[in-house]
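Figure 3 (text version): structure tokens given as input.
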């Protein structure tokens, strides 16, 4: 496991403070003064870590790339238990990404910094191919139901985005925590054959959802 050096750790701490504002408002209209304000540091401190707005945006993209690439590689020799573990890892990434990576940010990134956009898009495409292969392997080994794996990815992008929207939560008088638990169980039943449900250790999903909920509540 690669250890994060102190400089990268300090940069990432500042970027995480900035992230909710960038994802909501975009970055094109932001000045360096705005960025320092959102990072809750002085301009001098900010410039110790970032030389320009492009440096800041590149840091945000790198954070997403590193997060996505944490998904462990699978091998054909993996036993059945690994499907339960990977299912939860994919679920954690999906609910984290849908809550952070917005269309506003992606559209501006594509226009202003196309090379950074291509880097992020390439990483997202790689993750999509990994997920598709995972679902295909699960069907091939008789672990997953025979469902269209592309629909599953589309469901994560559209349905998950909709049910975690604040307007949806308020209208239906339901908490983000309950929605994520419901969606998790919905996906598990949807994917795993009844006799393979035991491959998923539900006790591990609680801390994952709690962590996501904590970040969600902080961003409100």
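Below: residues designed for each position.
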């Amino acid at each position: 496991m690669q250890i994060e050096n102190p400089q990268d750790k300090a940069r990432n701490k500042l970027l995480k403070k900035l992230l909710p504002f960038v994802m909501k408002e975009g970055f094109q209209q932001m000045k360096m003064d705005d960025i320092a304000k959102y990072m809750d540091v002085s301009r001098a401190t900010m410039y110790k870590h970032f030389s320009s707005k492009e440096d800041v945006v590149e840091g945000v993209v790198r954070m997403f790339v590193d997060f996505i690439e944490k998904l462990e590689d699978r091998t054909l020799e993996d036993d059945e238990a690994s499907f339960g573990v990977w299912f939860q890892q994919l679920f954690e990434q999906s609910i984290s990404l849908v809550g952070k990576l917005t269309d506003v940010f992606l559209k501006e990134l594509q226009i202003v910094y196309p090379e950074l956009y291509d880097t992020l898009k390439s990483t997202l495409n790689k993750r999509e191919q990994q997920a598709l292969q995972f679902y295909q392997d699960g069907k091939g080994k008789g672990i997953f139901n025979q469902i269209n794996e592309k629909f599953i990815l589309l469901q994560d992008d559209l349905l998950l985005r909709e049910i975690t929207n604040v307007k949806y939560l308020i209208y239906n008088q339901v908490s983000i925590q309950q929605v994520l638990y419901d969606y998790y169980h919905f996906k598990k039943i949807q994917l795993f054959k009844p006799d393979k449900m035991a491959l998923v250790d539900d006790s591990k999903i609680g801390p994952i959802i709690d962590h996501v909920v904590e970040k969600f509540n902080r961003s409100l």
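The longest helix spans residues 114-140.
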